[in-house]
Amino acid sequence: MQTVLFHHTPMAYRNSSKQKPPQHALAVQETSAERIIKAAHQHTATVWQGDFHNAKQVLAAIKKRVRRKMKAESDPATAFHKHRMAQAQQSQIINMLLVEIAGDYTVNAQRAPDVQAALNDVFGASNGESFLLPLNQLLGFIGAHEWHKKGVDIAELGDKIHVPFGVFSPIRGEYLALVAQTRLPENCQSAQDIGTGSGVLAAILAKRGVGKIIATDNNPRAIACAQQNVQRLGLSQHIQLRECDLFADECVDLIVCNPPWLPAQATSAIETALYDPKHAMLKAVLQRAHAHLQPHGELWLIMSDLAEHLGLRQKDELAHILAQNHWHIAHIAQTQASHPKAHDPNDPLAFARSQERTFLYCLQSQK
Fold first, then answer.
1. One Pfam match, by short name (predicted)?
2. What distance lies between CA 7 and its chain's CA centroid?
3. pTM over 0.90
4. Between 347 and 238, whose confidence is greater?
5. Residue 243: in which H helix or E strand, if any?
6. What is the DSSP string of 21-71?
7. Which of 101-115, 161-175, 196-210, 277-291 has the lowest mean pLDDT?
8. Closest C-alpha to 137, from 152, 123, 151, 150
9. DSSP, res 323
10. Which residues have CB under 8 Å from 108's CB, separation 6+?
């Protein structure tokens, strides 16, 4: 737990990103976006104790002031890294508007909503200690809790997947369709879903008739989430959840893995589902999967080519990594990206997102 000097007294501070805590925090009833930004540049956070709805308006004003349109770059990698740097700098300022959360998970602000269920979803049961929390993150937690309750419709399941904050949500449907439609290996009776997250891919495999699926993840929140989804979908007899790093000990007919697609540094725990420096997880899976496949089994690798359009990976680099690790490409299925950002011309990375494709590589071991 980090601490901040609040009225010259250390107070607990929580932040779901990897940002450093502010050096000081001062309480206010009302103030302006300009003053909060000025204080932030002096490493001082502002703790809002006035009207909660006014705080949301001021937060919107802060975002409007710090989020400026980036200059176009001819080099894709430079554009990506500048975008990520700008995101980090903007987030640092935005997260300097704080609220005080009491030990019973109530907000010390007028007309504040009931956030107890949302905070319990994120942090678990309260330890009774008050703490400071960025307002922007609190609003994100509230939104995530509502999505957790509502669930995400999955056409391939004809049902919903429910995902709490801290677990990657399967909101991009194109890769789910690839797993649901690609021909299974002959006589496929068993599978492992590596980095299962919400459990959605394991559920799709079970719906397709794979009798035994072991779903692994090293994130206990993901395992708990997947377990709840598996039970809700009535698939417990087919899917076993294991909290471990990558592989369970068994050998199976099919291994499915959807690793992080971008070889870059994550700035928060949830971003580890998207960013992985130097494709470390991908390479570990490719190195170790041989020992966990039955003869004539297959490794299904789900990858986007966004990294190539961003200049983060050379066009032939993935093929080289596969060959280097003794994998033969038996079949490739692909689809155009269909998520909202892929069609948003105002997105800073629209030049790359508009060209993105998602691939399912059906790989056979050459060892």
1. MTS
2. 35
3. yes
4. 238
5. strand 239-243
6. PPSEEEEESS--HHHHHHHHHTTEEEEE-SBHHHHHHHHHHHHHHH--PPP
7. 161-175
8. 123
9. H
10. 49, 99, 100, 101, 102
CB 122 within 8 A of CB 133: no
**Dihedral of the alpha carbons of 34, 38, 41, 47, in degrees to the nearest 10:** -80
Q: Enter the tokens of residue 138.
A: 């609190």
**Tokens found for residue 363:** 């790989």
Rounded to 5 degrees, what angle do the CA atoms 359, 335, 303 make? 20
80, two tokens:
């990506």
pLDDT of 138-180, one tens digit each?
999 999 999 999 999 999 999 999 999 999 998 878 899 999 9
Structure tokens, 216 = 């692994």
DSSP state, residue 159? E
Distance, in Å, from the CA atom of 304 to the CA atom of 176, rounded to the nearest integer, reads: 13
CB < 8 Å & 24+ apart, contacts of 279-282: 279/313, 279/321, 281/195, 281/246, 282/321
Q: Residue 5 CA to chain centroid, in angstroms? A: 31
Type of residue numbered 16: S
Give domain limits for the chain.
2-147, 151-365
How many whole angstroms separate alpha carbon 172 and alpha carbon 358?
10
CA angle 17–23–26, rounded 5-degree value: 100
Q: Are 101 and 122 in contact (CB under 8 A)?
A: no
Rounded-to-integer distance, Cα 38 and Cα 83, Å: 23
Residue 76 contacts residue 351 (beta carbons within 8 Å):
yes
Q: What element of type H or E holds 35?
A: helix 33-41
CATH of region 151-365: 3.40.50.150
61 alpha-carbon distance from chain centroid = 27
CA distance 159 to 152: 8
Burial of 78 (0-12, 13-18, 19+ CB in 10 A): exposed
Among 93, 81, 70, which Cα is nearest to 19's? 93
